[in-house]
Amino acid sequence: MRSTKFLSLLPFVRLAMAQNTWSFVQDGNSGIIPLELITISPTLALMYDRPYTNPLKLPNGEPAWAGLWHFDTNTATPLEIKTNSFCASGGFISNGTHVAVGGQPVDDIPGWGNATDGRMGVRLFGPCTSASGTGPGCTVFEDPDTLRLVVTRWYPTALRIADGSLFIIGGSDILTTFNGADIAQNNYEFFPPRKGEEGTVRPSKFLEDTLPANLFPRGMVLPSGNVLIIANNQSVIYDIESNTELMRLPEIPNGVRIGVPFDGFAQLLPLSPPLYEPTVLACGGSNKPDTITLEEMSVNDVASAQCQRITLTAAGVAAGWEIDHLPQPRVMAETVILPSGDIYILNGAHSGYSGYPSVGDSGATGTNAANPATQGIMYKSTLPLGQRITQVGIPTSPIPRMYHSAATFTAKGNIMVAASNPHPFVLTADNNPNNLSFPSEYRVEYLSPDFITNNSPRPVISKSPSQLAFNAQGTITVTIPASLAAGELQVSLMDMGFITHGWHAGSRLVFLEHTLSGNTLTITAPPNGNIYAPGPGWIYVVADGVWSEGVQIMIGDGGNPPRPAQGVPVSITSL
């Protein structure tokens, strides 16, 4: 049940125009707690967990902490891995391989599996072309002795950049609620390592300055190739090529902090040709000071409902953050970008903080947060201020999704919602002797718009290119229902991101230039790797707000990173 305690903010939010009605359906059991969730193919999602006493077992009978989710059967199969993948980050690289980096130290607890220290871990998966998840490329490859990060990283962020490699940001050496100067990894590295930088890291003054709330830094690659990094209540634009901080942005207004453990969310809004002007949305979190002690923090500390965005051009930065408000306060929420360009906000809580139980009154509940946010929010990114945020047509789930929950967009065009475990152990409804709040969650839900639920007409892609070079044209054979033909037509190129801890690292949508003639849709790939980094993506066709199922595509030449510059430069205003 949604608490009425947090309804007082609703009058401040004007509802946007009519939209699709959404609904939840619960279907399947994940077998592990997939706090790291990645859409791999039309039939598969990759899941990573901590080596708990999970019900999903390896062939040798030990509990699994990695697996594949099968969208066609709503079942899970185990994957065998070596290192502790808990609290990692990652992304696809230019050849289509998925790379997960960092993780957790050894959990030396009987019955929890046989994981080794994962903090320098590098886990390679794919490319897996099998619909069933069997065969070449459909296992996790690790070689901890030779294939490893330069330093230990827990709670880092990884982003695919223009050469197809991963840019890895920050983290900590050990488990902690607040990061500290003696344990923080205030630095950057690359995977694979850049020539001349093997075995080294790049120190970051920005990460030093954003202690103690700089874990899982929110990072976005801008159309200039520079990287925006948000941590605590601060932001910087960093030039990778010159290893230079170009500028600090204005602080997030009114003392709001979105870094761990205050845990607001951030999302790069869709990029549109020809200028691809980037706007970043950041919402929720807390306005508590970062000097607050754990003893002073409470599970009932009300989160922030503030929502702000900034356009990363010279004029946009001069104008500063534009402030809006969510209907209710949010902590640990996450964003799923939709092919239409709208943002679905879900999961998390109305009060408290992220992290295992550590705040002053967490002992009674076994969690750092309370008041689960069971109803989502739709953010209509193209509407004027005051009309963007709505809960019309947005359902309430009976399942609280607190710390360690996840949600990913699928090829079918709906959202897979899974996981939740605010406890440092598996706690099930029938094994909860102390009656702690929010047991470990294995139930999987799908969140679908009405045109999927009702099997209504939608665009159908019957033929599409499997690969497209930068700035090249390709053709898609598509059927647009007559009932949708008069509406706006969009072609969306999407990266779903690496989903963990309410943060969708690398999540991105680029609208493609296109022309439609009959059933032939001619599309033009992004001009270069700064707009969309070389590697895999998904194409959706949207007609009058209704999207097709997605098809996979490789953007660029598909080679191993680092790739030379591909495509053509374009005139942009992005910083």
UniProtKB/TrEMBL annotation:
Matches recorded under Pfam families: Glyoxal_oxid_N (PF07250), GO-like_E_set (PF09118)
Keywords assigned: Signal
Domain Galactose oxidase-like Early set: from-to ranges: 458-555
Top-rank taxon, per record: Eukaryota
Position of the signal peptide: 1-18
Entries under Gene3D superfamilies matching the protein: Galactose oxidase/kelch, beta-propeller, Immunoglobulins
Domain Glyoxal oxidase N-terminal: residue ranges: 69-450
Annotated protein name in UniProt: Glyoxal oxidase N-terminus-domain-containing protein
Organism: Roridomyces roridus
Taxonomic lineage from the root: Eukaryota, Fungi, Dikarya, Basidiomycota, Agaricomycotina
